[in-house]
Amino acid sequence: MIETSQPAGTALPAVTIRDVTLNYFSPERETLALSNISLDIAQGEFVAIVGSSGCGKSTLLSLISGLMRPSRGVIQINGKEVTAPSPRAGYMFQKDTLLEWRTVLDNVLLGPELLGLDRQASRGRAEDLLTRYGLGEFMHSLPGQLSGGMRQRAALARTLCPDPELLLLDEPFSALDYQTRLALSDEIAAILANERKTVVLVTHDIGEAISMADRVIVMSRRPGRIKSIHDVAYPSFGPSRPTPFQARKCQEFGMYFQTIWDELDAHHMQ
Ligand SMILES: Nc1ncnc2c1ncn2[C@@H]1O[C@H](COP(=O)(O)OP(=O)(O)OP(=O)(O)O)[C@@H](O)[C@H]1O
């Protein structure tokens, strides 16, 4: 196991990705999905990854989560190599994956249960998260009684219940209608700022990426490589960070949007 030693006074990155390559093998072919990816993600940073379909965004998240191992290279969380799924990383998928036959509360408790944590000890946190996310009245309902946005909030509560340091979000809003999506990205940004988590968000939506993230990583078409990295800041808004909704109205939003759009568009022309 490789461990990173860090000079005194330098904060250890939350995630370190070093020269990572990933090949998929099937009987018919070998697919080079990711090639030589290197990236550091700071503690508490919110990073968004954008890129065209099939460029390896979900593959990269699976590698960070430990669900898959790289063919070459190393991934570390807080300086420790990731060799298997870890309770330090919470993974939220595009589809909410709530179990329809379990109540909302029991769904949230599934996260800690799967990690072998004590159910009773987790119950207080689960109830607290659901109440804070406006689902207090629906704790004992089945997921079928919730709207799409409420289901994603319940799924977020399940991911946050074991208190992971790192959140991996794989297009968590893509199944929702546009208005719910905007409202929920505002709510989730507020929740995450409050929880002070490190977040990696994969999305197709440039607006979502630049309104929520501190840094946007643009990936090239397969084999996925890092094409460019954009630091996102909204000085026109003032010293505090705008909410995603406010960010969309800032002048910088259009500028970032155009730059990243041009980069992604250039992919399609290749
Ligand atoms: N299990 C697998 N076996 C073989 N090839 C795979 C497998 N999973 C993904 N791939 C291939 O690897 C590449 C990257 O896939 P991945 O799902 O990571 O891309 P993505 O950027 O998340 O795509 P999308 O935005 O469409 O979800 C694609 O070309 C895909 O076809």
TrEMBL record:
Pfam family, one: ABC_tran
Name this protein carries in UniProt: Spermidine/putrescine ABC transporter ATP-binding protein
SUPFAM superfamilies: P-loop containing nucleoside triphosphate hydrolases
UniProt KW keywords: ATP-binding, Nucleotide-binding, Transport
Molecular function terms, GO-annotated: ATP binding; ATP hydrolysis activity
Family of this protein: Belongs to the ABC transporter superfamily.
Domain of life: Bacteria
